[in-house]
Structure formats: structure tokens, C-alpha cells
Amino acid sequence: LREPVRQAQRAGLPVTLEADPAGRVPPAVAQVLHRVVQESLTNVERHCPGGRAGLVVTRDGDLTITVDSPCGVGPRSDGGYGLTSMSERVTSLGGVFEAGPHDGGWRVHAVIPLDSGEVVA
Questions:
Q1: Burial class, 43, CB count within 10 angstroms (exposed 0-12 / middle 13-18 / buried 19+)
Q2: How far, in Å, CA of 13 to CA of 71, rounded?
């Protein structure tokens, strides 16, 4: 989580992070976690100038990722595939992906089973 959060912060996006302590996760889950966080924060940077992002990652049998921003994102006309790509990555591991308006802003929410592959430190 550190690198995509640092990248967004270096780009000027305030990010608050709430995360369970580090632990063991399957490599495939770790990779999808990284990409969902990275793409979500990039979308907030692009579509919510002057905005901020709230990132919450929890582990309770599954890995849950939630990214909130105060701006709606709506349908894209530039051919972007970020939301589709995130959804495909999450569902390929048996997870659930949702993105859309939430409390006047935008929310990306993904739940990934932690038993999706071999566990590593």
C-alpha cells in the first residue's frame, strides 16, 4: 500500500489511510490490492481536482478495499478502462467489485477472498 499512496501524495492528493496491520496474503491478492489502490487513487487525482481520498483496507476472512472521494466520476468518454480492469482483476480471484456514486462522491469497493492462491509473507 505504501507505494501507491506515496505516489498519490507526491502528486498532491491528500490520502488518509486506515489499514489492518500487515500480514500474509497470497501473491495474487497482493498484486490486485496494489493495482486497485493505484488505479483508484489515480482516478481521484484525474477526476477530482483539489479533492482527497480516503482508503480503508481491512482483513476479516476476506480482504476489503474501499476508496472514497468527494467527487463523482461518472461515465468516461475518453475510452478509459480503469474501472473495467479493476473489476476483472478482482472477479478473477472470486471477489466482488463495485464502483459508483456514494454519499455525494464516488466509492470503489472490492472484496477479495484471502484464500485466492498460495500465501506468502
A1: buried
A2: 13
The answer to whether the pTM exceeds 0.85 is yes
Structure-block grid coordinates of residue 83: 474501472
49 to 12, 45, 83, 95, 106: CA distances (angstroms): 10, 6, 19, 30, 13
Instruction: Please identify which residue in the block is written with the cell numbers 487513487.
Output: 41
Q: Which residues contact residue 80 at a Cβ distance below 8 angstroms, ignoring those fewer than 6 apart?
A: none
Chain segment 2-13, per-residue pLDDT in tens:
899 999 999 999
Identify whether the C-beta of residue 105 lies closer than 8 Å to the C-beta of residue 98: no
